[in-house]
Design a protein that fits this description.
single chain, 20% strand, alpha/beta, Rossmann fold
């Protein structure tokens, strides 16, 4: 098994070309999904002037076990996934974008990966959108150390956490914990809990994400 299973994954693009866009959004698909699937959000979000980029996970999954499993049990896939997101972000920066013009977004497993990436590579991003996700690690993980080491690193980055409760994969308590940690890192965090909502993305959540992207472009 390769130590970097996601390195060769394709990155699909939709929306405005990077040479013409005012904002770039990295979209991360969920377990069993695909880059093609998650790019469907570009039409639903309906924001002009945005370049969407979606990397494809090896075997359609970013890491094999639950995001609540011990981190070492999801290696080397987790580290490879984080590196893949980093490579996409760097390629966008090389096209002339600052991180303030880059939004990291994802659904389910992709939302967990997006949250983990922003927390582990903190900067002032254009935003973080986590449709049903949170920081990666088993119950009892001391995520507070992230905030202690980087208390203002996100510099007001808008952060959106949306999730159903109960959700079959992501406990609401982890969403709240993640929101608190990213707030402690300087993020401007908004959470939305939807009682009884199935494991999906609703129109209300898409509207919140749409508003975040519009505000970031201003």
């Amino acid at each position: 098994m390769t130590s970097d299973p996601h390195a060769a994954g394709v990155v699909l693009q939709r929306g405005a070309p990077l040479s013409e866009a005012r904002l770039a959004v990295v979209l991360l698909h969920g377990r069993g999904g695909s880059a093609q699937d998650i790019l469907g959000l570009s039409s639903a979000l309906n924001v002009p002037g945005v370049a969407y980029q979606a990397p494809q996970a090896s075997e359609h999954t970013w890491y094999p076990l639950s995001f609540l499993a011990p981190r070492q049990e999801n290696e080397p896939f987790l580290s490879s996934a984080l590196a893949k997101v980093g490579a996409v972000v760097r390629s966008i920066e090389e096209a002339g974008f600052s991180r303030k013009q880059i939004v990291i977004a994802g659904f389910s497993q992709g939302a967990c990966l997006a949250t983990e990436f922003v927390a582990r590579s903190p900067a002032q991003y254009g935003g973080l959108i986590a449709f049903t996700g949170g920081l990666i690690g088993p119950p009892g993980t001391n995520f507070r150390d992230l905030a202690k080491g980087t208390p203002k690193a996100l510099a007001g980055t808008p952060v959106l956490f949306c999730s159903g409760d109960p959700d079959p994969h992501v406990p609401w308590a982890r969403v709240e914990e993640s929101a608190s940690v990213l707030s402690g890192m300087g993020g401007s965090v908004l959470t939305r809990r939807y009682p009884g909502r199935p494991h999906t993305i609703t129109q209300a959540e898409l509207q919140l994400a749409h508003e975040l992207l519009i505000d970031t472009q201003k």
